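Reviewer comment 2.1 asked that we show a complete input and output for one of the modelled complexes. We chose the protoporphyrin IX containing FE case, as it is the one discussed in the main text.
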Amino acid sequence: MSDLIEGYLGKTVEGKKSRTPAKLDYLQSATGLFLGLFMWGHMLFVSTILISKDFMYSVTKFFEGSFIFNEGQPIIVSGIALVVFIIFIAHAAMGMRKLPANFKQYQVMKAHANNMGHEDTKLWFIQAFTGFAMFFLGSVHLYIIMTQADAIGPYASADRVWSNWMWPLYILLLLAVEFHGTIGLYRLAVKWGWFDGKDPKASRKKLKAYKKILTVFFLVLGFATLAAYMKIGMDHAAAGKVGERYTPTAQIMEYKINNGRVA
Ligand code: HEM
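Response of the prediction step:
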């Protein structure tokens, strides 16, 4: 009954407003924090291809639990991707509450942002746009990684990027995720006052500078990484080897030694 009264009047029987919106805001922040930090780790792991194919291969095997199982189990990566996907969907659902529901609402927000001339309010539009784009782009990537976790590695990933045409999607996803992620983490820090210190205005200025540096850093790293996968994928396709998996240098040397030849 009290739900019915609150549903119609927007207040409980005791005249109090629901705490649910505040709880949902908290959930949005928590899932956003997780995803933002996860993406920093993700970009660093994926970019190991810039160091060497062997390094990227060993990182992949590490996430497959090779320190416990001999060959590694891709199902572990599928499990991690499923958990990330659920958090991603929960975060998107929370974010949807902040999007304008019709043109009138959009117009009011735009006029408000322009009138205030406040940079942080304008950042909201970037968040809404990149967030909307990620609904689609992020879901495609997560679903593929979740269902094809056995096809992650120096050659398998490069084949997916180049021969399976993922690179156009990755260009867009990379742009969306890097802007959305760093702006999101900046807004979280400002919203909850994590680094306010004695002079919140001065710390906000500093946070803004860090935000810019991090965005540029991860964009440069991301595009260099993507270019590396594209180049490896192109060479692999030109050699007619699409689908062939990478054999780490250590295994090739072992094979040659066992066959009486020293590498
Ligand atoms: C557990 C979850 C995830 C795993 C295991 C994973 C794994 C990978 C791997 C292996 C690549 C290299 C290319 C390939 O193999 O296709 C990649 C690229 C990429 N991923 Fe993820 N990913 C995950 C979640 C996400 C999420 C949540 C996002 C953003 C919404 C994302 C955005 C990207 C982008 C933008 C690239 C291209 C990066 C570049 O080449 O610089 N990933 N991911």
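Residues 42, 46, 77, 80-81, 84, 88, 134, 138, 141-142, 145, 152, 157, 160-161, 166, 170, 173-174, 177, 222, 225-226, 229 surround protoporphyrin IX containing FE (CB under 6 Å). We note this here for comparison with the apo prediction described in Section 3.2.
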